[in-house]
Specification:
Elements: E1 2-5, H1 20-28, E2 32-36, H2 47-52, E3 56-58, H3 61-67, E4 70-72, H4 79-82, E5 90-93, H5 101-110, E6 113-116, H6 131-148, E7 170-174, H7 178-189, E8 193-198, H8 201-210, E9 215-219, H9 222-229, E10 234-237, E11 263-266, E12 287-290, E13 293-296, H10 306-327, H11 329-335, E14 343-346, E15 349-350, H12 353-358, H13 367-370
Parallel strand pairs: 1-2, 1-4, 2-3, 4-5, 5-6, 7-8, 7-10, 8-9, 10-11, 11-13
Antiparallel strand pairs: 6-14, 12-13, 14-15
Helix pairs in contact: 6-7, 10-11
Length: about 375
């Protein structure tokens, strides 16, 4: 198969979808790998390293899209890329369709095959290609939140871990999944007073068992959230409904109940956000303030630490990329059920129900293409 790796063009996105080591694994199996000039530079990988691994370098993004049968990316295509995607071309990347209708419509119109990292799913309902970036984003949420709590950045002017004789900051985490768990570990390690809210009692029992003493769990409901936000210094939104838009757990009116300088970090922003006042921001302009509350809503948080993120992501995606390259998307999906829910759009049909429901569009069961 001919595989293309374009350079990411989203604002401050420095990750790359394939490392030189990954390219070598694909080339060993007889596949042709084309990498756009300087695509790996932001993650610390030179063109020379790719050519040494057997890949070929192409000068432009247009060249990569025009030659490839499968495109491997990190982030969803953005508008300048829409016209480059060909009918029947396989795109293997994060899409988060349910949060952005123009992207969904563009992929329907170009009749590509869209296999989304974030909805590839194991039998135990875990999301193997979302986990590594969720781990990075969860840890970064505390790193960034602690930074924006500083007064020069319009925060409360509070040190996350406090000092002897001064109480630490209160951190509230909405969601006890991968993001929430990683955020809690980081916040607890820095000495904060941490509360994780979730709707699953089994999950909270697990977290109570493994977390240090400065982490508490609490049932997530509107009453409890309204009470907790009055005292929180840093709030992390870490809610995920696979493939669907995140629910708004913090509404616009709740901001007035928060202390001035409270920091909100919405890690769910690429799925629409679990904070109503959330809107996607960039690493270039990461925050904005509403009602004296600092909002950090960067949609590609792991892009700020591209070396770590690229290695973590490709460790997870490469085995699937090899299956897709070796067998083609249809045979790979028939032989590996984990790939089936990853299929979101095929030949102009939306085959992932939550995406179709998000925009009231027609849904076609994926079985139509796997029969």
């Amino acid at each position: 198969m001919i595989i293309g790796v374009p350079k990411e063009i989203k604002n401050n996105e420095n990750r790359v979808a394939l490392t030189p080591a990954g390219a070598k694994e694909l080339v060993k199996r007889g596949h042709q790998v084309y990498v756009q000039h300087t695509a790996g530079q932001g993650s610390g990988f030179s063109d020379d390293e790719y050519t040494a691994a057997g890949a070929a370098i192409l000068p432009t993004i247009e060249d990569v899209y025009s030659i490839a049968e499968m495109i491997i990316k990190v982030k969803e295509p953005i508008e300048p890329e829409y016209k480059l995607i060909k009918e029947g071309q396989l795109l293997f990347t994060y899409f988060h369709f349910a949060s952005y209708e123009p992207l969904t419509k563009a992929m329907v119109e170009n009749k590509s095959i869209c296999l989304a990292y974030e909805t590839v799913e194991k039998a135990d309902r875990s999301l193997p290609l979302l986990v590594p970036m969720s781990e990075v984003a969860g840890r970064m949420s505390i790193q960034k939140g602690a930074n924006y709590l500083e007064k020069p950045l319009k925060g409360r002017g509070i040190l996350l871990g406090g000092v002897p004789g001064v109480l630490p900051a209160k951190v509230l985490i909405l969601g006890g999944g991968v993001v929430g768990t990683q955020a809690a570990w980081m916040a607890a390690g820095l000495g904060a007073d941490v509360t994780i809210m979730d709707v699953s009692l089994p999950r909270m029992r697990y977290l109570d068992d493994v977390m240090p003493a400065n982490v508490n769990t609490m049932m997530s409901n509107e009453y409890n959230i309204r009470e907790m936000i009055k005292h929180a210094d840093l709030i992390v939104g870490a809610v995920l409904i696979p493939g669907a838009k995140a629910p708004h757990l913090i509404t616009r009116d709740m901001l007035k109940e928060m202390k001035p300088g409270t920091v909100l970090v919405d890690v769910a922003v690429d799925q629409g956000g679990c904070i109503e006042t959330c809107k996607p921001t960039t690493h270039e302009n990461p925050t904005y303030i509403i009602d004296d509350v600092v909002h950090y809503c960067v949609a590609n948080m792991p892009g700020a630490v591209p070396y770590t993120s690229t290695l973590a992501l490709t460790n997870a995606t490469l085995p699937y990329a090899i299956q897709l390259a070796d067998k083609g998307w249809k045979k790979a999906a028939l032989e590996n059920a984990e790939l089936v829910p990853g299929l979101n759009v095929i030949n102009g049909d939306i085959v992932y129900k939550a995406v179709a429901e998000a925009f009231d569009m027609d849904y076609v069961p994926v079985e139509k293409y796997l029969a």
